[in-house]
Specification:
about 140 residues; 3 helices; globular; five-stranded mixed beta sheet; two-stranded antiparallel sheet; Rossmann fold
Length: about 140
């Protein structure tokens, strides 16, 4: 029987850190039967991620996202969560503080103006790639 493939989305700024190692170890304890995929060792560049992400996404049984130590995620994580939701891949939030998994309710984009195109608001999905300077905060349903 194939082990479920779970992608552990997290900010690039946490790659290789003690914080990342602790969070991934806690996820492995919570999901002992899963094959946990760490993007830090999967992609060589943003271009490599863009090329290979659709195939990785097609192979997933679930996606778990965890924020950096400030509680923020970047545009890449937003895109991964968005893509997973569109493909009906279950998405959960992992809180490294309390080490619990929760269904991801949504993403808040604090202090961001509504993007406009020719004076009209544009669709929310275009916002994901405009967040490099202001990462969203993860909102927990509880």
């Amino acid at each position: 029987m194939r082990r479920p493939r779970v992608y552990a989305a997290h900010p690039i700024g946490t790659y290789g850190s003690a914080y990342e190692r602790r969070a991934l170890a806690a996820l492995r304890r919570l999901l002992p039967g899963a094959e946990l995929l760490n993007p830090a060792g999967m992609f060589t560049s943003s271009e490599d991620w863009l090329d290979r992400w659709p195939d990785v996404l097609d192979s997933l049984d679930a996606l778990v996202v965890f924020p950096d130590e400030r509680g923020a995620i970047g545009a890449g994580c937003v895109q991964e969560v968005y893509d997973a939701h569109r493909r009906l891949v279950p998405v959960a939030l992992f809180d490294p503080g309390d080490r619990k998994l929760r269904r991801l309710a949504g993403l808040d984009f604090p202090d961001l103006p509504t993007p406009r195109n020719a004076g009209h608001p544009v669709a929310g999905e275009t916002l994901a790639w405009e967040l490099a300077a202001r990462p969203p905060r993860i909102r927990d349903p509880s």
